[in-house]
Write a structure and sequence with these properties.
The structure holds two protein chains of two kinds.
Chain A: E1 3-5, E2 10-14, E3 19-21, E4 24-26, E5 32-39, E6 46-52, E7 59-61, E8 64-69, E9 74-79, E10 88-96, E11 103-105, E12 109-114
Parallel strand pairs in A: 2-12
Antiparallel strand pairs in A: 1-4, 3-9, 5-6, 5-10, 7-8, 8-9, 10-11, 10-12
Chain B: E1 5-7, E2 10-13, E3 19-24, E4 31-38, E5 42-50, E6 53-56, E7 65-71, E8 74-79, E9 88-95, E10 104-105, E11 109-113
Parallel strand pairs in B: 2-11
Antiparallel strand pairs in B: 1-3, 3-8, 4-5, 4-9, 5-6, 7-8, 9-10, 9-11
């Protein structure tokens, strides 16, 4: 069965620091999809990125970057020069191609960026 | 473009009452999902629909929970009778296409059962 582990429950940094949120997954499928979502204090869930298992290229979007490594079953998320507005709970999620639409979420990492 | 719209945003009611949560998916999306978020269990998939047809309801906790999708632009999640342990944030999400497509979430309904 698919599983997502976000070992960091809470992280606190000072503004402008870089921070990496870890995500480790387990799956038996060769085709799968990984996602990151952001849940700010207002409560909504915001889609950030999707990666499929055949695309290990890292991605950068502004201050956000993602590092996908199949060898270690990890899909880590780095925020460079963090800002107070980055404070949120971040969820990593996994969906297996052979498991219909059962998207499993990790427990989330609460990031607090202090001014 | 309008996102997923959920109503109400907050609901407080007494146990035993019927609760109905509503969702309007993004136009053109053919998948609709209902999730529940609690501190103890995190985000859990309750049920999902494809083209208005329920596909997997294995996450629905009990017979007290039911969901319908009478048309492509509307879905309801009903709890009858409600219990205090049903208190949670309920999210609706939709996607275009199935597996591997990002799900877009509504703002959620914060439900409190007293």
């Amino acid at each position: 069965a698919q599983k997502v582990t976000q070992a960091q429950t809470e992280i606190s940094v000072v503004e402008k620091e870089d921070v990496t949120l870890d995500c480790v997954y387990e799956t038996r499928d060769t085709t799968y999809y990984l996602f990151w979502y952001k849940q700010p204090p207002s409560g909504e869930l915001v889609f950030l990125i999707r990666r499929n298992s055949f695309d290990e290229q890292n991605e950068i979007s502004g201050r956000y970057s993602w590092n996908f490594q199949k060898s270690t079953s990890s899909f880590n998320f780095t925020i460079t020069a963090s800002q107070v507005v980055d404070s949120a709970v971040y969820f990593c999620a996994l969906s297996e191609a052979g498991n219909n639409n059962d998207m499993r979420f990790g427990a989330g990492t609460r990031l607090t960026v202090k001014p | 473009d309008a996102g997923v719209i959920q109503s109400p945003r907050h609901e407080v009611t007494e146990m035993g009452q019927e609760v109905t949560l509503r969702c309007k998916p993004i136009s053109g999306h053919d998948y609709l999902f209902w999730y529940r978020q609690t501190m103890m269990r995190g985000l859990e998939l309750l049920i999902y629909f494809n083209n208005n047809v329920p596909i997997d309801d294995s996450g629905m906790p009990e017979d007290r929970f039911s969901a319908k999708m009478p048309n492509a632009s509307f879905s309801t999640l009903k709890i009858q009778p409600s219990e205090p342990r049903d208190s949670a944030v309920y999210f609706c999400a939709s996607s275009f296409g199935g597996n591997g497509q990002p799900q877009h979430f509504g703002d959620g309904t914060r439900l409190s059962i007293l």
